[in-house]
Amino acid sequence: MAVRMCADSLPLLAPLWALEVLILVGTRGVLRAGKSCNRSGARRERACMGRGVEASRSDERRPFRRFEASKEDTFQRSPTASDALAVPGAASPLAPRRAGHTEAARDARSGSRLPAFAGTSFAGMTQGAAHFAPLWRRRRNSAAGALMARPDPAIASDHMRGQKRTGRTNEISHEGAAILRAAASLGAAEAFAAWKAFREAVPEGEEDVRHRRLLPLVCRNLSRLGHPRDPYLIRAYAESLAFNTRALGALGRAIDTLHGASIPSLALKGCALLLGHYRDHGIRPMSDIDLLVPGGRISAALDALERSGWRGDPERRWLAGSMHAGTLSDGSGTTLDLHRYATYEARYDEANEWFFADSEPLEVEGGKTRVMGPSDQLLHTIVHGLRWSIAPSDIWIADAATIIRGGRVEPARLSERAQRLRLGAAVDQGLKLTRKILGPEPRLDALRSALAVRRPREFIEHGFRVRPPAGLLGALPNLWFAYQRSRSEGAPLAEFPSFLANAWGIPREDLSSCMWGKARRRLARTLHRD
Fold first, then answer.
1. 322-370: per-residue pLDDT in tens?
2. 45 phi and psi, to 5 degrees?
3. Which one, 153, 319, 333, 343, has the greatest CB density within 10 A?
4. DSSP label of 137
5. Count of CB atoms within 10 A of residue 281's CB?
6. Are 151 and 127 in contact (CB under 8 A)?
């Protein structure tokens, strides 16, 4: 039986072996992440953005373009909280600012000084995310049943003027660095100068999504340092506070539901950072709430949450795939990402056990849950922030600085965890970027010096993780590394075809023809462009 399986898989494994050779040998440029990133490819991407042309086929990016349309990254607010902190005459910093997308919002809020958003999905807020314009395609989300629309090419072209971004998450623009310094610098002179430089480069109301998420942090940091009150920033803080207050209430209800079913939970991402490190409900915007439950209890957790009113994909198709989390909604605009694994880079039960073992208790709206310890929280923040996403954010740098400044991160524990999860290269670059943006700090330097020696394979994998899944190989290298991370000690090559067929959503028997078809099409497009 084993011999027959190997013989049947031989036509499929041949290109995969070739892929492994390409990844391990032909990645000299990848190792120089952030310094040179296929300039000709970046120029073609920008040209595609201006013309509104798809840069590459959607089906090869599907596993890395998952984004639930029901995620309301629009910081919806309760009228009471927003009115209480609103400043008369201040424009809404978190609402869409582009002409053509604000008329309907103005009409909808006539007679009200509360800002409105152009839609309830994330797509309504990301019309200015120009460098991802070629990656968006109108599609139906299985969980939410909602439509996501590609941004207007004209908006994309306008937003890209003067920018040289290549879409890599380890590259921060000059404007991004300036607003990060304004949000997280400890010195008044440096923070004020950075905010002035940002405002000279980006007029009020013209911020992109990455910048808008940092505005509440800027508001609190400048206020702490004695900067004059800015109505625009105060409005951003008020909107973030109102949305977060409602989201945390929903989180408390979800925790109570899981606790009643005797299912342990661990709060992740924005929730954990907000309550465990920032300790200010308005300072750090959230787009949703995230909870981790043990992988073996995920079905029971879904049953309990659905009985209490949460709704997701009724067929639970994400459980059959490689995704580490699924999305549910409570019907009031709050979405919950229910994780069976803490991070996509460690999709196995041992990693969950490590995170739970070193976690700390936390109370949310009367409900009892847990959060990662500071060392694990820092690792999780950096790895998640540096992973390429269709909706990127630079706020993770401010998050990392806040965790480090808390003084409770243990260098030895961080190094041990990074080495065990094979994430040393990612953590090292995250700390290096934080130091580059915010300057040297003794605690940060101590963490970097304590990291164990990184293996070359980690640098290669990290180089692919931070870039968009484009080029001749597309998402195939990312899928290979994702497959290798589905087990603590790596996964056997012979089972990769089944993983690939599942990720692409095709029958196993069609995989060989699909792979060669993709290779031919990509090669033809590459030769045609050159």
1. 788 999 998 888 999 999 999 989 888 899 999 999 999 998 888 899 9
2. -60, -45
3. 343
4. -
5. 18
6. yes
What residues have CB less than 8 Å from 387, skipping those under 6 apart?
A: 169, 344, 345, 465, 466
Measured at the CA of 523, the angle between CA 65 and CA 390, to 5 degrees, comes to 15
- Counting beta carbons within 10 angstroms of the beta carbon of residue 139, is it exposed (0 to 12), middle (13 to 18) or buried (19 or more)? middle
Q: What is the 3-state secondary structure (H, E, C) of 186-212?
A: CCHHHHHHHHHHHHHHCCCCCCCHHHH
Question: Is residue 424 very low, low, confident or very high in pLDDT (cuts 50, 70, 90)?
Answer: very high
- Cα(487)–Cα(176) distance, rounded to whole angstroms? 36
User: Bridge-partner residues for 291, per DSSP?
Assistant: 267, 338
Query: Per DSSP, what are the bridge partners of residue 328?
Result: 336
Q: What is the pLDDT of residues 36-88, one digit of tens each?
A: 333 444 443 344 334 333 333 333 333 333 333 333 333 333 333 333 333 43
Tell me the two tokens of residue 420: 């065990």
Look at residues 66, 75, 69 and name the one whose alpha carbon lies nearest to residue 287: 75
Cα 45 from Cα 332, distance rounded (Å): 38
Q: Burial level of 95, CB count in 10 A (0-12/13-18/19+)? A: buried
Rg of the chain over all Cα atoms, to the nearest angstrom:
23
Q: What average pLDDT does range 297-320 have in this prediction?
A: 91
Element (H, E) at 437: helix 424-438
The pTM of the full predicted model, rounded to 2 decimals, is 0.73
Residue whose tokens read 């109108």: 138
The answer on pLDDT for 184 being more than 70 is yes
